[in-house]
Amino acid sequence: MFTRIDIINALYYLIRIINLLILVRVLMTWINPSPRNPIVQFILSVTEPILSPIRHLIYNVFGYNGMIDFSPILAIFLLNFLFDFVILRLL
């Protein structure tokens, strides 16, 4: 049976992996890899469900739809906040 510490560790590593994939996605915008690459498709399929709602939130609240995408920064901040201040407080 899993203990609380096992659950916290699993969530910690899951959030770190998602943060890393978001960072890799940001770096991919600089090199513009082929969207047909399976690794690129995997990274996009994992990160897009997280970034898309944040992108819409930024547009709806602030009306910003500029050249710089702030959704990865906000997503990483929210994931870390979720882990540090919500999950650790509940468990």
UniProtKB/TrEMBL annotation:
A Pfam family annotated for this UniProt entry: CCB3_YggT
Superkingdom in the source lineage: Bacteria
Membrane recorded as keyword: yes
Keywords: Membrane, Transmembrane, Transmembrane helix
Protein name stated in the entry: YggT family protein
Family of the protein in this entry: Belongs to the YggT family.
GO CC annotation terms, alphabetical: membrane
TM segment ranges: 12-31, 70-90
Hydrolase keyword on record: no
